[in-house]
Design a protein that fits this description.
470 residues, mainly alpha, 18 helices
Length: 470
Protein backbone atom coordinates (compact mmCIF):
# COMPACT_ATOMS: atom_id res chain seq x y z
CA UNK A 1 0.00 0.00 0.00
CA UNK A 2 2.97 2.32 0.48
CA UNK A 3 3.27 2.63 -3.29
CA UNK A 4 0.08 4.75 -3.37
CA UNK A 5 1.47 6.95 -0.62
CA UNK A 6 4.80 7.29 -2.44
CA UNK A 7 3.03 8.19 -5.70
CA UNK A 8 0.94 10.82 -3.90
CA UNK A 9 3.99 12.24 -2.11
CA UNK A 10 6.03 12.57 -5.31
CA UNK A 11 3.07 14.12 -7.14
CA UNK A 12 2.53 16.73 -4.41
CA UNK A 13 6.23 17.69 -4.29
CA UNK A 14 6.43 17.99 -8.07
CA UNK A 15 3.18 19.97 -8.16
CA UNK A 16 4.40 22.43 -5.53
CA UNK A 17 7.62 22.88 -7.45
CA UNK A 18 6.25 23.14 -10.96
CA UNK A 19 2.62 24.19 -11.01
CA UNK A 20 3.22 27.65 -9.59
CA UNK A 21 6.15 28.28 -11.88
CA UNK A 22 4.36 27.07 -15.01
CA UNK A 23 1.25 29.02 -14.03
CA UNK A 24 3.40 32.15 -13.80
CA UNK A 25 4.38 31.71 -17.45
CA UNK A 26 0.70 31.40 -18.42
CA UNK A 27 -0.11 34.53 -16.46
CA UNK A 28 2.62 36.26 -18.49
CA UNK A 29 0.65 35.51 -21.67
CA UNK A 30 -0.91 38.98 -21.65
CA UNK A 31 2.57 40.48 -21.47
CA UNK A 32 3.84 38.28 -24.34
CA UNK A 33 0.90 38.88 -26.69
CA UNK A 34 0.93 42.61 -25.98
CA UNK A 35 4.71 42.92 -26.43
CA UNK A 36 5.31 40.52 -29.33
CA UNK A 37 2.01 40.74 -31.25
CA UNK A 38 0.60 37.86 -33.30
CA UNK A 39 3.63 37.65 -35.63
CA UNK A 40 6.20 37.62 -32.82
CA UNK A 41 4.14 35.23 -30.71
CA UNK A 42 3.86 32.93 -33.71
CA UNK A 43 7.64 33.09 -34.31
CA UNK A 44 8.27 32.12 -30.69
CA UNK A 45 5.99 29.12 -31.15
CA UNK A 46 7.84 28.07 -34.32
CA UNK A 47 11.26 28.34 -32.62
CA UNK A 48 10.27 26.43 -29.48
CA UNK A 49 8.46 23.71 -31.42
CA UNK A 50 11.42 23.25 -33.78
CA UNK A 51 13.72 23.14 -30.75
CA UNK A 52 11.66 20.43 -29.06
CA UNK A 53 11.91 18.21 -32.14
CA UNK A 54 15.64 18.78 -32.62
CA UNK A 55 16.44 18.03 -28.97
CA UNK A 56 15.06 14.52 -29.33
CA UNK A 57 17.01 13.88 -32.54
CA UNK A 58 20.33 15.48 -31.58
CA UNK A 59 20.53 13.77 -28.17
CA UNK A 60 19.28 10.36 -29.40
CA UNK A 61 16.47 10.84 -26.84
CA UNK A 62 18.99 9.63 -24.26
CA UNK A 63 17.12 11.48 -21.51
CA UNK A 64 14.47 8.76 -21.69
CA UNK A 65 17.14 6.19 -20.87
CA UNK A 66 18.60 8.35 -18.10
CA UNK A 67 15.31 8.35 -16.18
CA UNK A 68 14.49 4.71 -17.01
CA UNK A 69 17.89 3.21 -16.11
CA UNK A 70 18.63 5.72 -13.37
CA UNK A 71 15.57 4.58 -11.44
CA UNK A 72 16.59 0.93 -11.75
CA UNK A 73 18.81 -0.08 -8.80
CA UNK A 74 20.60 -2.66 -10.97
CA UNK A 75 22.59 0.03 -12.78
CA UNK A 76 25.37 2.33 -11.59
CA UNK A 77 24.02 5.89 -11.46
CA UNK A 78 27.38 7.45 -12.32
CA UNK A 79 27.55 5.39 -15.49
CA UNK A 80 23.95 6.28 -16.40
CA UNK A 81 24.57 10.03 -16.01
CA UNK A 82 27.93 9.91 -17.77
CA UNK A 83 26.47 8.10 -20.77
CA UNK A 84 23.55 10.54 -20.93
CA UNK A 85 25.71 13.65 -20.56
CA UNK A 86 28.48 12.65 -23.02
CA UNK A 87 25.91 11.50 -25.58
CA UNK A 88 24.17 14.87 -25.34
CA UNK A 89 27.38 16.90 -25.73
CA UNK A 90 28.55 14.74 -28.64
CA UNK A 91 25.21 15.14 -30.41
CA UNK A 92 25.27 18.91 -29.98
CA UNK A 93 28.78 19.13 -31.46
CA UNK A 94 27.88 16.88 -34.39
CA UNK A 95 24.82 19.05 -35.10
CA UNK A 96 26.84 22.27 -35.59
CA UNK A 97 27.66 21.72 -39.32
CA UNK A 98 23.99 21.04 -40.01
CA UNK A 99 22.73 24.39 -38.64
CA UNK A 100 22.60 26.00 -42.14
CA UNK A 101 20.15 23.29 -43.24
CA UNK A 102 17.54 24.93 -41.01
CA UNK A 103 17.73 27.91 -43.36
CA UNK A 104 16.21 25.81 -46.14
CA UNK A 105 12.86 26.11 -44.35
CA UNK A 106 11.60 29.59 -45.17
CA UNK A 107 10.18 30.61 -41.82
CA UNK A 108 13.15 29.10 -39.89
CA UNK A 109 15.91 30.82 -41.88
CA UNK A 110 16.08 33.95 -39.71
CA UNK A 111 16.09 31.96 -36.48
CA UNK A 112 18.46 29.04 -37.14
CA UNK A 113 21.20 30.17 -34.71
CA UNK A 114 18.62 31.02 -32.04
CA UNK A 115 17.16 27.55 -32.46
CA UNK A 116 20.62 25.99 -31.96
CA UNK A 117 21.17 27.96 -28.74
CA UNK A 118 17.72 26.89 -27.54
CA UNK A 119 18.54 23.23 -28.32
CA UNK A 120 22.04 23.42 -26.78
CA UNK A 121 21.10 24.64 -23.31
CA UNK A 122 17.72 22.87 -23.29
CA UNK A 123 19.30 19.47 -24.04
CA UNK A 124 21.94 19.73 -21.31
CA UNK A 125 19.43 21.03 -18.76
CA UNK A 126 17.05 18.18 -19.60
CA UNK A 127 19.57 15.39 -19.05
CA UNK A 128 20.73 16.98 -15.77
CA UNK A 129 17.18 17.46 -14.47
CA UNK A 130 16.08 13.96 -15.46
CA UNK A 131 19.08 12.43 -13.73
CA UNK A 132 18.38 14.39 -10.54
CA UNK A 133 14.82 13.02 -10.61
CA UNK A 134 16.11 9.49 -11.24
CA UNK A 135 18.16 9.68 -8.02
CA UNK A 136 14.91 10.25 -6.12
CA UNK A 137 15.72 13.88 -5.33
CA UNK A 138 12.33 15.16 -6.47
CA UNK A 139 12.56 18.16 -4.12
CA UNK A 140 15.64 19.51 -5.88
CA UNK A 141 14.02 18.78 -9.24
CA UNK A 142 10.95 20.77 -8.17
CA UNK A 143 12.97 23.67 -6.73
CA UNK A 144 14.93 23.87 -9.97
CA UNK A 145 11.63 24.25 -11.86
CA UNK A 146 10.74 27.29 -9.75
CA UNK A 147 14.24 28.77 -9.98
CA UNK A 148 14.41 28.40 -13.77
CA UNK A 149 11.00 29.97 -14.31
CA UNK A 150 11.70 32.96 -12.05
CA UNK A 151 14.97 33.64 -13.88
CA UNK A 152 13.21 33.25 -17.23
CA UNK A 153 10.39 35.65 -16.35
CA UNK A 154 12.74 38.31 -14.97
CA UNK A 155 14.87 38.13 -18.10
CA UNK A 156 11.72 38.30 -20.24
CA UNK A 157 10.72 41.55 -18.59
CA UNK A 158 14.25 42.95 -18.95
CA UNK A 159 14.79 41.95 -22.59
CA UNK A 160 11.25 42.49 -23.93
CA UNK A 161 10.08 45.54 -22.03
CA UNK A 162 13.41 47.06 -20.98
CA UNK A 163 15.48 46.53 -24.15
CA UNK A 164 12.68 45.90 -26.68
CA UNK A 165 14.51 42.88 -28.12
CA UNK A 166 11.37 41.06 -29.33
CA UNK A 167 11.75 37.41 -30.40
CA UNK A 168 15.53 37.51 -29.83
CA UNK A 169 14.97 38.66 -26.25
CA UNK A 170 12.41 35.92 -25.58
CA UNK A 171 14.71 33.12 -26.79
CA UNK A 172 17.77 34.52 -24.99
CA UNK A 173 15.71 34.58 -21.79
CA UNK A 174 15.01 30.86 -22.13
CA UNK A 175 18.63 30.06 -23.04
CA UNK A 176 20.11 31.99 -20.09
CA UNK A 177 17.52 30.56 -17.68
CA UNK A 178 18.45 27.02 -18.80
CA UNK A 179 22.13 27.85 -18.38
CA UNK A 180 21.44 29.07 -14.83
CA UNK A 181 19.53 25.85 -14.17
CA UNK A 182 22.47 23.70 -15.35
CA UNK A 183 24.82 25.49 -12.93
CA UNK A 184 22.21 25.22 -10.15
CA UNK A 185 21.75 21.45 -10.66
CA UNK A 186 25.47 20.75 -10.93
CA UNK A 187 26.12 22.60 -7.66
CA UNK A 188 23.21 21.46 -5.48
CA UNK A 189 22.82 18.04 -7.10
CA UNK A 190 26.59 17.45 -6.95
CA UNK A 191 26.45 16.09 -10.46
CA UNK A 192 30.21 16.42 -10.96
CA UNK A 193 30.78 13.43 -8.66
CA UNK A 194 28.71 11.25 -11.03
CA UNK A 195 30.32 12.48 -14.25
CA UNK A 196 32.99 10.28 -15.83
CA UNK A 197 34.52 11.11 -19.17
CA UNK A 198 36.46 7.82 -19.32
CA UNK A 199 35.75 4.23 -18.31
CA UNK A 200 32.24 4.20 -19.75
CA UNK A 201 30.40 0.86 -19.44
CA UNK A 202 29.95 -0.08 -23.09
CA UNK A 203 27.38 -2.76 -22.39
CA UNK A 204 25.19 -0.35 -20.39
CA UNK A 205 25.57 2.23 -23.16
CA UNK A 206 24.28 -0.35 -25.66
CA UNK A 207 21.32 -1.10 -23.39
CA UNK A 208 20.54 2.60 -22.99
CA UNK A 209 20.81 3.26 -26.73
CA UNK A 210 18.67 0.24 -27.50
CA UNK A 211 15.97 1.79 -25.33
CA UNK A 212 16.41 5.45 -26.33
CA UNK A 213 16.99 5.29 -30.09
CA UNK A 214 13.47 3.95 -30.83
CA UNK A 215 12.29 6.91 -28.76
CA UNK A 216 13.61 9.27 -31.46
CA UNK A 217 10.91 8.35 -33.99
CA UNK A 218 8.47 8.20 -31.08
CA UNK A 219 9.35 11.80 -30.19
CA UNK A 220 9.09 12.78 -33.85
CA UNK A 221 5.66 11.15 -34.08
CA UNK A 222 4.46 12.89 -30.92
CA UNK A 223 5.84 16.15 -32.27
CA UNK A 224 3.94 15.66 -35.52
CA UNK A 225 0.77 14.84 -33.63
CA UNK A 226 1.10 17.56 -31.01
CA UNK A 227 2.84 20.58 -32.47
CA UNK A 228 3.37 20.18 -36.21
CA UNK A 229 0.03 21.91 -36.71
CA UNK A 230 1.86 25.17 -35.92
CA UNK A 231 4.06 24.62 -38.97
CA UNK A 232 1.14 23.68 -41.21
CA UNK A 233 -0.73 26.82 -40.11
CA UNK A 234 2.38 28.97 -40.67
CA UNK A 235 2.88 27.57 -44.17
CA UNK A 236 -0.80 27.59 -45.18
CA UNK A 237 -2.32 30.54 -43.26
CA UNK A 238 0.61 32.74 -42.18
CA UNK A 239 2.72 33.18 -39.06
CA UNK A 240 0.18 35.56 -37.49
CA UNK A 241 -2.40 32.73 -37.49
CA UNK A 242 0.21 30.48 -35.90
CA UNK A 243 0.35 33.07 -33.10
CA UNK A 244 -3.42 32.88 -32.69
CA UNK A 245 -3.21 29.07 -32.57
CA UNK A 246 -0.47 29.25 -29.91
CA UNK A 247 -2.69 31.56 -27.85
CA UNK A 248 -5.63 29.15 -28.19
CA UNK A 249 -3.35 26.34 -26.95
CA UNK A 250 -2.09 28.23 -23.88
CA UNK A 251 -4.82 27.47 -21.36
CA UNK A 252 -5.51 23.90 -22.53
CA UNK A 253 -1.83 23.36 -21.70
CA UNK A 254 -2.79 23.68 -18.01
CA UNK A 255 -4.40 20.24 -18.38
CA UNK A 256 -1.19 18.94 -19.94
CA UNK A 257 0.77 20.60 -17.13
CA UNK A 258 -1.21 18.82 -14.42
CA UNK A 259 -0.93 15.56 -16.35
CA UNK A 260 2.80 16.07 -16.90
CA UNK A 261 3.47 16.64 -13.21
CA UNK A 262 1.55 13.49 -12.33
CA UNK A 263 3.18 11.50 -15.15
CA UNK A 264 6.64 12.30 -13.81
CA UNK A 265 5.69 10.81 -10.45
CA UNK A 266 3.69 7.98 -12.03
CA UNK A 267 6.51 6.81 -14.31
CA UNK A 268 8.77 6.54 -11.26
CA UNK A 269 6.16 4.31 -9.59
CA UNK A 270 5.44 2.31 -12.75
CA UNK A 271 9.14 1.52 -13.20
CA UNK A 272 9.87 0.63 -9.56
CA UNK A 273 6.66 -1.45 -9.21
CA UNK A 274 6.92 -3.23 -12.56
CA UNK A 275 7.30 -6.69 -11.00
CA UNK A 276 4.50 -6.39 -8.46
CA UNK A 277 1.90 -9.17 -8.48
CA UNK A 278 -0.93 -6.66 -8.18
CA UNK A 279 0.37 -4.29 -10.84
CA UNK A 280 -2.86 -4.50 -12.91
CA UNK A 281 -4.96 -3.34 -9.95
CA UNK A 282 -2.44 -0.59 -9.23
CA UNK A 283 -2.69 0.71 -12.81
CA UNK A 284 -6.51 0.47 -12.81
CA UNK A 285 -6.91 2.28 -9.49
CA UNK A 286 -4.56 5.08 -10.47
CA UNK A 287 -6.05 5.50 -13.94
CA UNK A 288 -9.56 5.72 -12.43
CA UNK A 289 -8.53 8.63 -10.22
CA UNK A 290 -6.43 10.18 -12.99
CA UNK A 291 -9.40 10.15 -15.38
CA UNK A 292 -11.60 11.96 -12.89
CA UNK A 293 -9.07 14.73 -12.30
CA UNK A 294 -8.53 15.27 -16.04
CA UNK A 295 -12.28 15.38 -16.77
CA UNK A 296 -12.94 17.97 -14.06
CA UNK A 297 -10.03 20.20 -15.11
CA UNK A 298 -11.05 19.97 -18.78
CA UNK A 299 -14.67 20.85 -17.93
CA UNK A 300 -13.53 23.80 -15.81
CA UNK A 301 -11.34 24.94 -18.70
CA UNK A 302 -14.24 24.81 -21.17
CA UNK A 303 -16.41 26.73 -18.71
CA UNK A 304 -13.83 29.52 -18.26
CA UNK A 305 -11.97 29.59 -21.58
CA UNK A 306 -13.93 32.51 -23.06
CA UNK A 307 -13.31 34.71 -20.04
CA UNK A 308 -9.64 33.68 -19.69
CA UNK A 309 -8.62 34.23 -23.29
CA UNK A 310 -10.55 37.47 -23.63
CA UNK A 311 -8.69 38.66 -20.54
CA UNK A 312 -5.19 37.42 -21.40
CA UNK A 313 -4.87 37.54 -25.21
CA UNK A 314 -4.82 41.26 -26.02
CA UNK A 315 -5.02 42.87 -29.45
CA UNK A 316 -7.38 42.76 -32.42
CA UNK A 317 -5.52 39.76 -33.88
CA UNK A 318 -6.68 37.60 -30.96
CA UNK A 319 -10.37 38.51 -31.01
CA UNK A 320 -12.59 35.40 -30.74
CA UNK A 321 -9.55 33.16 -30.17
CA UNK A 322 -11.44 31.16 -27.49
CA UNK A 323 -13.52 29.45 -30.20
CA UNK A 324 -10.39 27.61 -31.37
CA UNK A 325 -9.71 26.07 -27.95
CA UNK A 326 -12.49 23.43 -27.48
CA UNK A 327 -11.07 20.84 -29.89
CA UNK A 328 -7.64 21.47 -28.37
CA UNK A 329 -8.95 20.92 -24.82
CA UNK A 330 -10.53 17.56 -25.70
CA UNK A 331 -7.39 16.65 -27.69
CA UNK A 332 -5.23 17.29 -24.61
CA UNK A 333 -7.52 14.98 -22.60
CA UNK A 334 -6.81 12.12 -25.03
CA UNK A 335 -3.13 13.08 -25.09
CA UNK A 336 -3.04 12.65 -21.30
CA UNK A 337 -4.69 9.23 -21.55
CA UNK A 338 -2.30 8.16 -24.31
CA UNK A 339 0.67 9.22 -22.19
CA UNK A 340 -0.64 7.19 -19.26
CA UNK A 341 -0.95 4.10 -21.45
CA UNK A 342 2.57 4.81 -22.69
CA UNK A 343 3.91 4.28 -19.16
CA UNK A 344 3.30 0.58 -19.71
CA UNK A 345 5.87 0.64 -22.53
CA UNK A 346 8.37 2.58 -20.40
CA UNK A 347 8.09 0.17 -17.45
CA UNK A 348 8.38 -2.92 -19.67
CA UNK A 349 11.11 -1.38 -21.93
CA UNK A 350 8.90 -1.78 -25.03
CA UNK A 351 10.07 1.42 -26.71
CA UNK A 352 9.57 0.02 -30.23
CA UNK A 353 5.87 -0.56 -29.56
CA UNK A 354 5.64 2.95 -28.16
CA UNK A 355 7.10 4.23 -31.42
CA UNK A 356 4.72 2.23 -33.63
CA UNK A 357 1.61 3.33 -31.77
CA UNK A 358 2.73 6.98 -31.88
CA UNK A 359 3.35 6.61 -35.61
CA UNK A 360 -0.31 5.84 -36.26
CA UNK A 361 -1.30 9.22 -34.81
CA UNK A 362 1.42 11.10 -36.69
CA UNK A 363 0.40 9.74 -40.09
CA UNK A 364 -3.28 10.55 -39.63
CA UNK A 365 -2.37 14.00 -38.27
CA UNK A 366 -0.40 14.94 -41.39
CA UNK A 367 -3.17 13.76 -43.71
CA UNK A 368 -5.93 15.52 -41.75
CA UNK A 369 -3.96 18.78 -41.46
CA UNK A 370 -3.58 18.89 -45.24
CA UNK A 371 -7.29 18.16 -45.71
CA UNK A 372 -8.90 20.19 -42.92
CA UNK A 373 -6.83 23.39 -42.54
CA UNK A 374 -7.84 24.70 -46.00
CA UNK A 375 -11.50 24.06 -45.10
CA UNK A 376 -11.73 24.90 -41.37
CA UNK A 377 -8.64 27.07 -40.86
CA UNK A 378 -7.24 26.96 -37.32
CA UNK A 379 -10.04 24.68 -36.14
CA UNK A 380 -9.00 22.24 -38.85
CA UNK A 381 -5.60 21.91 -37.19
CA UNK A 382 -7.21 21.52 -33.76
CA UNK A 383 -9.60 18.84 -35.04
CA UNK A 384 -6.71 16.99 -36.72
CA UNK A 385 -4.85 16.91 -33.42
CA UNK A 386 -7.93 15.64 -31.57
CA UNK A 387 -8.59 12.78 -34.00
CA UNK A 388 -4.91 11.80 -33.95
CA UNK A 389 -4.82 11.49 -30.17
CA UNK A 390 -8.06 9.51 -30.15
CA UNK A 391 -6.48 7.05 -32.58
CA UNK A 392 -3.26 6.69 -30.55
CA UNK A 393 -5.19 6.13 -27.32
CA UNK A 394 -7.43 3.51 -28.94
CA UNK A 395 -4.46 1.65 -30.42
CA UNK A 396 -2.58 1.70 -27.11
CA UNK A 397 -5.57 0.40 -25.18
CA UNK A 398 -5.58 -2.69 -27.41
CA UNK A 399 -1.79 -3.05 -27.63
CA UNK A 400 -1.04 -2.80 -23.89
CA UNK A 401 -3.65 -5.34 -22.75
CA UNK A 402 -1.30 -8.33 -22.99
CA UNK A 403 1.25 -6.39 -20.86
CA UNK A 404 -1.07 -4.97 -18.18
CA UNK A 405 -4.82 -5.60 -18.21
CA UNK A 406 -6.46 -2.42 -16.92
CA UNK A 407 -10.08 -1.67 -16.10
CA UNK A 408 -10.63 1.58 -18.01
CA UNK A 409 -14.19 2.06 -16.68
CA UNK A 410 -15.76 2.48 -20.15
CA UNK A 411 -19.17 3.73 -18.93
CA UNK A 412 -17.58 6.48 -16.88
CA UNK A 413 -15.32 7.38 -19.79
CA UNK A 414 -18.18 7.46 -22.30
CA UNK A 415 -20.41 9.64 -20.10
CA UNK A 416 -17.66 12.16 -19.35
CA UNK A 417 -16.44 12.42 -22.93
CA UNK A 418 -20.01 12.95 -24.16
CA UNK A 419 -20.47 15.84 -21.74
CA UNK A 420 -17.10 17.35 -22.69
CA UNK A 421 -18.08 17.06 -26.36
CA UNK A 422 -21.34 18.92 -25.73
CA UNK A 423 -19.47 21.64 -23.83
CA UNK A 424 -17.05 22.01 -26.74
CA UNK A 425 -19.91 22.46 -29.21
CA UNK A 426 -21.50 25.11 -26.97
CA UNK A 427 -18.25 27.10 -26.73
CA UNK A 428 -17.83 27.09 -30.51
CA UNK A 429 -21.43 27.60 -31.59
CA UNK A 430 -23.53 29.44 -28.98
CA UNK A 431 -23.57 33.24 -29.29
CA UNK A 432 -26.03 34.25 -26.55
CA UNK A 433 -23.99 34.88 -23.37
CA UNK A 434 -26.71 33.76 -20.92
CA UNK A 435 -27.43 30.48 -22.72
CA UNK A 436 -23.68 29.98 -23.14
CA UNK A 437 -22.79 30.15 -19.44
CA UNK A 438 -25.96 28.48 -18.09
CA UNK A 439 -25.66 25.44 -20.33
CA UNK A 440 -21.91 25.11 -19.67
CA UNK A 441 -22.49 25.37 -15.92
CA UNK A 442 -25.07 22.57 -16.02
CA UNK A 443 -22.65 20.32 -17.93
CA UNK A 444 -19.86 21.18 -15.50
CA UNK A 445 -21.99 20.22 -12.48
CA UNK A 446 -22.87 16.90 -14.14
CA UNK A 447 -19.17 16.11 -14.68
CA UNK A 448 -18.46 16.99 -11.03
CA UNK A 449 -21.27 14.60 -9.99
CA UNK A 450 -19.82 11.80 -12.11
CA UNK A 451 -16.30 12.14 -10.72
CA UNK A 452 -16.35 13.41 -7.15
CA UNK A 453 -16.49 9.91 -5.62
CA UNK A 454 -13.14 8.92 -7.13
CA UNK A 455 -11.47 12.01 -5.70
CA UNK A 456 -13.04 11.48 -2.26
CA UNK A 457 -12.02 7.81 -2.20
CA UNK A 458 -8.41 8.69 -2.99
CA UNK A 459 -8.40 11.44 -0.35
CA UNK A 460 -9.83 9.11 2.33
CA UNK A 461 -7.28 6.47 1.45
CA UNK A 462 -4.38 8.91 1.74
CA UNK A 463 -5.67 10.28 5.06
CA UNK A 464 -6.14 6.72 6.35
CA UNK A 465 -2.63 5.78 5.31
CA UNK A 466 -1.24 8.91 6.94
CA UNK A 467 -2.99 8.08 10.21
CA UNK A 468 -1.94 4.42 10.19
CA UNK A 469 1.68 5.29 9.43
CA UNK A 470 1.71 7.55 12.44
Amino acid sequence: MDRYKKLASNTIILALGQFGSKLLVIIMMRFYTGTLGADGYGAVGVITNAGILLMAIVTLSVGESVIRFGLDSKYDKGQVFSIGFTTTITGLLVFIPFIPILGLVNFLADYRFLIYLYVFTGSIKSVCALFVRSTGNVRLFAIDGIFTTVVNVLLNILFLRGFGMGVLGYVLSVVLADLASIIFLFYFGRLSKYLRLFGIDKQLRRFMYRFSIPMIPTAVMWWITGVSSTFFITAMLGIDQAGVYKAAYTFPNIIALVSGIFSQAWNMSAITEKNSRTIAKFYSDVFGFYQSVIYVIAAAMLLMIRFLLNLMAVGADFEGVFRYSPFIIVAVVFSCFSTFMGSVYVASKKSVRSMLTAMSGAVINIVLNLLLIPILGINGAALSTLLSYILVFSVRVIDTRPLVFMDLKPFKMGANLTLLGLMAVIVMMVQDTNIYYISLSVMFVLIIALNYRAALTALRFLLKRKGSSR
